Amino acid sequence: MKLTLSNISKSYGDKTVLKDISYTFTPGVYGLLGANGTGKTTLMNIICDLLKPSSGDILLDGTLKPNKFNQYIGFLPQDFSYYPSFSGQDFLLYMASLKGMKSKIAKKECDIFLRLVNLDNVAKKPISSYSGGMKRRLGIAQTLLNDPKILVLDEPTVGLDPKERIKFRNIISDLSTDKIVLLSTHIVSDVEAIAKEILILKDGNFIQHGSSQELLSIIKNQVWEIDVNERLVHTYYHNYSVVNEKIESGYRTLRIISPESPTESAKRVEPNLEDLYLYYFREELPS
To answer: Fewest CB atoms within 10 A around its CB: which of 75, 86, 151, 152?
Structure first.
């Protein structure tokens, strides 16, 4: 199975959000990284046929969107809505009916996926009583109904605790053997662990893509740690790209990206995906 984006662009008036994006997805997990406002959600909405591109096409196995294309998609939006008076079970059955599932199959799948996301013990309680993490898990469950071949997940781990995030990653990793999974998140460790390819979206297009190791090679031998007197910290922020800071008693440990060693005492360290993210998007972060 192949999902192909062909020259996708999207503009709102004079503002261009996506610029001529082309890419082909095959089964596996793809991590989509980008700062707020870079067009991640716009791209996901276009893939899910919730938003029309200004130009370009989406093809499935070489054919323009076939009839009932939406049945191939399982979508979890960033702002996940629900009926608070529904129970978790009622909500999944309702979503199953919207997907055209037969009642007997829908009931079976709802039970399976409620158990998968650890909500089977509260399946009949109103969603209004659920915590934020529980609601997010319910959203993940509804994406899996009717065996979609393409999963589009926008910030799926928001509100999940570390244990829940690990379980989510394991679920997605298992599913990705025969599904295309596009995962957008600010928690880079979630994609670093399971993505076969990572796509970096900036200025309306994919500026880099590749495996985690391929992308980390971009900043190999350029990440340093240095212990700095507190009075000198601002000097390093002014002269270098500081991606992390750890406060110690009387000094601070700075993590710096630089092609040259900042000082003789700087220690070279192995880069990680968070370093790479900040390397590209530090200017978008609040000061």
So the answer is: 86
